[in-house]
Each structure stands twice: as C-alpha cells, then as structure tokens.
Amino acid sequence: MANIKFFLGEEIPLEMHKVRMVQRLDLVPIERRLAAIEEAGNNTFLLYNKDIYLDMLTDSGVNAMSDQQTASMLVVDDSYAGSATFTRLNDKINEIFGKKYFLPVHQGRACENLLSQYFVKKGTYVPMNYHFTTTKAHIMINGGEVLELLMPEAVKPTSSEPFKGNLNLDELQELIATAGAEKIAFIRIEAGTNLIGGQPVALDNFIEAGKIANKHKIPFIIDASLLADNLHFIKTREEKYKNHSIREITEILSKTADVIYFSARKLGHVRGGGIITNDETIYKNLLEMLPLYEGFSTYGGMSVREMEAMTIGLDETMDEEMINQGPIFIKFMVEELVKLGVPVITPPGGLGAHLNAMEFLSHIPQEQYRAGALGSALYIASGVRGMERGTISEEREADGSDHLAAIELLRLALPRRVFTLSQIKYTIDRIAWLYENRKLIGGLEFYEEPKVLRFFFGKLRPTSDWQQKLVAKFKADFGDSL
Ligand SMILES: Cc1ncc(COP(=O)(O)O)c(C=O)c1O
Fold this sequence. Notes:
Layout: H1 30-39, E1 54-55, H2 67-72, H3 84-97, E2 101-105, H4 108-119, E3 125-128, H5 133-141, E4 145-148, H6 169-179, E5 187-190, H7 203-215, E6 220-223, H8 227-237, H9 246-256, E7 259-263, E8 273-277, H10 280-293, H11 304-317, H12 320-323, H13 325-339, E9 352-356, H14 357-360, H15 370-382, E10 384-385, E11 387-389, E12 409-413, H16 421-436, E13 444-448, H17 454-457, E14 459-462, H18 466-478
Parallel strand pairs: 1-10, 3-4, 5-6, 6-7
Antiparallel strand pairs: 2-8, 7-8, 9-12, 11-12, 13-14
Helix pairs in contact: 1-15, 3-11, 4-5, 4-10, 7-9, 13-16, 15-16
C-alpha cells in the first residue's frame, strides 16, 4: 500500500496490486441465512461456502497468492525424497531466517504436536504471551500447563499501547525464580498474538525474552505464523527499528530464538508449515518423529506445488509493500467502526478486525456465549462469516465448568488481498445496523459439545426466539434488499 495523498482529502487504503482472477460470490436471502445458521448449530465453522457472502472466518490458507506464486506451482520437482523444490525452499528459509535446519510439516499445529511431544513433560510449565487454541491443546495433552504472562494492557479492549502482545518479562523472571528453570519446558512468544486481536510483539521484547531464556538455558520458541503483520508493526510502531528493512528485522528476531515454527497457511500464503532451528540436537530428535506424523524430511506432508509457492511467498513477505496491505485495510475498518461507536479492539492489530462482544452484547450472560451469539447474528444480518474467539474457544476446566474467557471477540479476518473496499464498507454497514439493534440478540447454549477443541464441531441453539425477531426487524428496515 503506497503513501498517496488524495486531492479531495479522502483517506482510504490504496492497493498496490490488481486482481486478475476472480471467484463468483452470492448473497443468499435472509430466510436462507437463518436456516443455514440453524443447520450449522450456530457454529460458523459448520456453514457451507455456498451460503456465505464474505468469508471472514480466517486468513488461514485463503490469502490471495501472487502471480509469481501461482506460476511457480507449474515448475516443480516432484519426488518423495530429495526434490529440488525442497532444496529451493530450504535455501530460502536459510537466507531469510539465518538458521540451518528446516523441518517441513503439513500445517502449523503439526509443529505444535512435534514440539510438545519433544519438550513437554508431565508437570512442566510453558509460559507464553498468550495461548493459541491448538498450541494449548497439544501442551495439555502432553501433561504440560500453559501460563499466560500478559502485559496489563493486553486484554484491555481499548488501548493506545502499540505492543499489547508483549510477554510480561517481570512475571517470567518471577516464574523462573519460584518454579525453577528445569520445570519450564520452553518459553513461547506468539508473534501477532491471534486470540487477543492480532496484537503485535515488540522486537525488543523478543530480544529480552531470548536473553532470559538463554541465561537459564530454557528453550525459546517463537510461533511465527502471524509474523508478517508483526514485522510491519515493528517497522511502523517501534521507533528504534523504523529505518531497518523487513529483512533486517527478521534477522534480528530470528537470532533471539532456539526454534521458530509457523503455519504457512498464514506466513507465505500457501498451505503448509515448518520448524526452523540451528540446534542440531533438537533437529535430529524432531527429525526422528517427522516420518511418523508428517512425511519424509523433504516434503513433510506438503505437496511440492505448495512448497514451491511458499518459497516465493516467503520472499515476498520481506517486501513492506506486500505485508502492509492487511494491517492497513484492518486499520481502515477498525477506525470506521470506532467512529460509529461500535466496540472494537484497539489499537487495530493484524489478522482482522475484532468486535468486542463482551461490550457489544453486555446484556447477555457470559455463560451464554456472547461472541458466539454475535457471530451468529452477524451472519444472519449480512452473510458475513466471522469466528468466535471467546468462551466457546476455551477448554472446560477439569471440574467440567466453563472457563470464561478474559475477552469475548468476534474476529472478522481479512485474508490478504482478497476483499475490496466496498465489501469492507458493506460489512461495516451491517455491523452498524446490528449494533443499533443489539438488544434483539440473545444467548446460545450447547446441545452437542465435543471434549476437545469444541469450537470446531460443537453445536448450539438460541436460548429464545431472538433470531426470528432479528430477521423480522431486518425485513422491516431493509425491505426486499438482500
Ligand atoms: C498463531 C498460530 N499458531 C498456530 C496456528 C495453527 O496453524 P494451522 O492452522 O496451520 O494448523 C495458527 C492458526 O491459525 C495460529 O494463528
């Protein structure tokens, strides 16, 4: 996105790409949207694409690829072992991250499986800035405990703190002093902290955390799935690094960690993932597990086409003009919503705009899943699919009680270079209508609840006929408009 001033004074994001391949979309009538959300058990994961107008569920595996990436997929070296496609990817990763070893896997959570199996022992702790759903589940399955060491601003919905994702280093030191370094399986920092609104981590925070880990000989692991947004925020919000290139920032960041892992469904705009390290012992141990869970060391469950496109995608990630598209579009959306008085997480982060359902639906008891109810209501009102990131996304406590989330978010992910500004404006319009009519929205309750990661397949029903009332109000206000 370029810094371009408009003669007429308008301030809008201006894309530095053009669209050369399109996919047809339909907006089905509101009666069908109501039926579809009922069939999906009020779980937006269970909706089908045919019923969705704008899919803001996630940015995972659905970012637009560049022409260069698509072209690269035609020239691949397809072999089980030792393909030149893998060598090209391996070399690119060495070049960007300055680390020797790369273990390919089929997606981000596969890294978490291997790393948790290797590092986490029963009774150990894994301190981190904030958990991600699959990360936490893997650590727990292996007998570890996740400890979130947040900064006080992290879960404040509105803030001007530029790096709400920072790890609380004082609490980390305290934990090491009280629990002992040997009880800590590893320290984890997640770049672009997903579940608290795509909030970034300062480069200095990575550096200081790395020093503490190193001093106590505790492995330091970075989840780099959302690194692209975080790199943009370091460059634009951390004064000290504003004159550093994205490559230089990545190099400094990479040096702080023993292990970097990522979902390439996000980083690199393809479908895959990988673990990067300079540590031969870690590499060799993980390598032994790789064929069992993923595949041979030169494909790890990925197709060669995805690997070839990942090589280009990672290289393009080093271009500020490319990685700033997401954060700048998100900033536009968040700032427009703020102007309308809609509760939304600030400052704008990466990944998407995050509606603060805790406040939006403050009249609903938190036990009736405010963020889930908002996701359901927004789909009915607009055909836009978001993702619940609140209590439904938590695991139940050992005693079976609900773990009420610190924040209730409806995440509206903006896959990079996918939506147009008019589509963003449509979404803002329908959110504004919903906010005006928020008292019509009621709660949800589970009628089918899986034991692990219940947000994927769980089914819920409304606690009253609020959805019918919402549809009636929509018809009264919008007439025969879709
Ligand atoms: C920060 C973070 N870590 C890990 C993952 C898991 O990656 P994947 O979905 O590729 O398994 C995600 C996915 O959204 C993520 O955002």
